[in-house]
Design goal:
Shape: globular
Largest sheet: 7 strands, antiparallel
Number of helices: 5
CATH topology: Penicillin V Acylase, Chain A
Helix content: 10-25%
Order of helices and strands: EHEEEEEEHHEEEEEHHEEEEE
CATH class: Alpha Beta
CATH superfamily: Penicillin V Acylase, Chain A
Strand order of the largest sheet: 1-17-16-15-3-2-11
Distance between the termini: 18 Å
Radius of gyration: 18 Å
Strand content: 25-35%
CATH architecture: 4-Layer Sandwich
Length: 292
């Protein structure tokens, strides 16, 4: 059962001062034209994972969520998960989530797996994220997800689990399972791409120089806002290009999330956009982290 956590500290209100109105929108307006060359059918749910590019935030997650716009969701909030408190946006249809962090500093982010058979009456994959958020370590989170998927029929998924020191990848589709630690500075996933099969134009060059740029996580998050709004992915096998932000079709970008996972004792950073990052504003939910 998911219930709100009790208040622990006062949280900054969500005022206009907590919004980033211009960066993504200006770049988005200037980048709406499709580039020349083949732009393939869009993969969905792009997840960017950056490692060790900021001295205070060893893992930064940037995610676009593609979904039916009529599917109800709520913005990031505090929830009780087993005996832990977690911060995440919520799928109001099934109660799960696609990205979040708990009071032990365990962060989880999820995509679906395109083309994999979906068993009849399978549970929402977002419930597996809650299992991971009930954990106190990366290993426990992975064990929780495996146990849940052994007990229940769950839709195919891939996810990453991180703390301030480690980043792990897990995928389960039918009887196929993969699990390994990620050491790369940047990894991109989509519902059609596991790690090392897709890249985002300009991302690898950007992350390669970040370790030399000092500590300014907000500038790095600003850059990733623009990436989520305007960048294109590239299939490393076929060379096909696709927009990271999907603006057309029955399944399109309905939200974007940026989550910077701090080292132990640090303050997390969380920005959330309830809509397309090309046109809607990101709001700062970092203050809720003080109550974890």
């Amino acid at each position: 059962m998911i219930t709100p956590c009790p208040a622990r500290k006062q949280v900054a209100s969500m005022s206009p001062d907590n919004e980033w109105p211009d960066t993504a929108r200006v770049h988005a307006r200037s980048s709406r034209a499709k580039p020349s060359g083949g732009v393939g059918r869009s993969p969905m749910c792009v997840l960017i994972v950056c490692r060790d590019i900021d001295p205070d935030y060893p893992v930064i997650l940037a995610a676009n969520r593609e979904e039916d716009p009529s599917r109800p969701t709520s913005p990031p909030g505090l929830h009780a998960v087993a005996d832990r408190c977690a911060l995440y946006p919520q799928d109001k249809r099934h109660g799960g989530t696609w990205i979040g962090i708990n009071d032990s500093g365990i962060a989880v982010a999820l995509t679906n797996v395109a083309g994999a058979p979906v068993p009849e009456a399978a549970h929402s994959r977002g419930l597996a994220v809650l299992q991971a958020l009930a954990a106190g370590s990366v290993d426990e989170a992975l064990d929780n997800v495996r146990g849940f998927m052994a007990r229940e029929v769950v839709r195919p998924l891939q996810l990453v689990v991180a703390d301030g020191a480690r980043l792990a990848y897990f995928r389960r589709a039918g009887d196929d399972e993969a699990c390994f630690d990620i050491e790369d500075l940047a990894v991109v996933l989509t519902n059609r791409h596991p790690p090392k099969t897709v890249e985002i134009g300009g991302l690898s060059g950007w992350v390669a120089v970040q370790a030399e740029q000092g500590s300014d996580v907000e500038v790095r998050l600003d850059h990733l806002v623009v990436t989520l709004a305007t960048a294109h992915g590239i299939d490393m096998k076929t060379g096909e290009r696709f927009p990271v932000c999907v603006e057309e079709g029955t399944q399109r970008t309905v939200s974007s999330t940026l989550l910077a996972v701090p080292r132990a004792g640090g303050d997390l950073r969380l920005r959330y956009c309830a809509g397309s990052p090309r046109t809607e504003r990101f709001r700062d939910y970092s203050g809720l982290g003080a109550r974890l």
